[in-house]
Specification:
The protein has ten helices and seven strands. By secondary structure, the protein is an alpha/beta fold. The chain has a seven-stranded mixed sheet with strand order 3-2-1-4-5-7-6, sandwiched between helices. Helix 8 packs antiparallel against helix 9. Bound molecules: S-adenosylmethionine.
Length: 371
């Protein structure tokens, strides 16, 4: 992500992601109310601290919005409880994220103790059973790496001349999807280790409806355009063709049935809800805004791959010109991406106090029914 808070920064180009958090706001509130069990020993003790982690937080301000929403829902839930918890919030992102901007912009009136937790979320970041709430929004489409097969000349999945699996052969799509499966499983297992029994997790995932074709969508066509901009620059001798062929975007967009199958296969969470979120409004698609957004998200990847000499301004100027001419921006039929809201509850570990507590709760309930 482009750091800082200048005109090209993520902070100034993340309204789409913000709108997704707004669509998820009420759902989060209602589901916390229904599923956070304040009697559960892991949530109810005399000096309870509720620990929340936002995975893939970037530089704010969206992360602050998400965290405030979770805290307000938890506070509501504890209203009638004797114990009023304190909150500790961990902001996670990759080590080269601009944490300075994030911390500089922390809300002064916050109700939590804030910390940074640098590192990949495709691995453990917290001690066992210490988190109560995990949140991750519009970050899980980032793969941990580009599948090796797509960059190898001798592989049938070599993705020559493209920057993504959009429009590529089925082998390329399969390589991306198996990398996603591996990454998502690693993410779920790491979070399952870190969450307390009964701990909650919200994921907002950029995805694609079952059966929809990425190459017939605005995202897919945007990536195709980007690929052709690279090709043009290579033809003009501004970058090497070899470098273009080895550049691929590390994004995968899963369908809801893929998500459900992966969570079930992992088996450590109960699926409370998977729902499609309302799509952010695109009433006036603006080529300049879309290009700036793309630049804020992938500019850093381009720079990393091509080196500092890469004419990044020229690349995105070409992209802008193509976007102006393209129907992608104006044809609502092409807006096929969908955003999924996933609400999970950590299953109780076998033999844990939480499992005993749940069993005793079930017993009390059934003895009431029998009476
Ligand atoms: C599109 S931004 C979303 C930021 C924020 N959650 C929001 O809703 O605006 C995706 C973020 O995920 C981060 N990210 C990607 N892969 C990651 C990983 N493996 N571990 C931690 N963060 C990661 C990126 O660095 C980026 O800051």
């Amino acid at each position: 992500m482009m750091g800082g808070d200048g005109p090209n920064s993520y902070a100034q180009n993340s309204e789409y992601q913000k709108q997704l958090l707004v669509s998820a706001e009420d759902l989060i509130h209602d589901l916390i109310h229904e599923h956070l069990d304040t009697e559960n020993p892991t949530f109810n003790n005399s000096n309870s601290t509720i620990r929340i982690a936002d995975f893939g937080c970037s530089v704010g301000p969206n992360a602050f919005f998400a965290v405030d929403n979770i805290i307000s829902a938890v506070e509501d839930k504890y209203k009638s409880n004797q114990n009023h918890p304190e909150f500790q919030v961990f902001f996670n992102d990759l080590i080269d994220n601009d944490f300075n901007t994030l911390f500089r912009n922390l809300p002064t009136s916050r109700k939590y103790f804030a910390s940074g937790s640098p590192g990949s979320f495709y691995g453990r970041l917290f001690p066992k059973a210490t988190l109560h709430f995990a949140h991750c929004s519009t970050a899980l489409h980032w793969l941990s790496r580009i599948p090796v097969e797509v960059t190898e000349k001798n592989s049938i999945a070599w993705n020559k001349g493209r920057v993504h699996y959009s429009g590529a052969g089925k082998e390329v799509k399969e390589a991306y999807s198996s990398q996603y499966k591996e990454d998502f499983e690693t993410f779920l297992s790491a979070r399952a280790d870190e969450l307390v029994d009964g701990g909650l997790m919200v994921l907002v995932i950029l995805g694609f409806p079952d059966g929809a074709l990425l190459c017939e969508s605005s995202i897919g066509l945007t990536f195709d355009m980007l690929g052709s901009c690279f090709q043009e620059m290579a033809k003009m001798g501004k970058i090497s063709e070899e470098k273009v062929d080895s550049f691929n975007l590390p994004f995968y967009y899963p369908s809801p049935s893929e998500l459900k199958a992966m969570i079930e296969a992992n088996g450590l969470f109960n699926i409370v809800r998977i729902a499609k979120l309302a799509s952010p409004m695109r009433a006036k698609p603006d080529p300049q805004i879309l290009t700036s957004h793309l630049k804020a998200v992938i500019g850093v990847l381009v720079e990393e791959h091509f080196g500092n000499g890469m004419m990044i301004e020229e690349l995105f100027r070409l992209q802008f010109e193509k976007m102006v001419e393209s129907p992608v921006l104006f044809d609502g039929k092409l807006w096929k991406e969908a955003n999924y809201f996933v609400f999970l509850k950590r299953n109780a570990r076998s033999g844990s106090p939480q499992q005993k507590f749940q069993k005793s709760k079930r017993k009390t309930k059934s003895s009431h029914i029998m009476r």
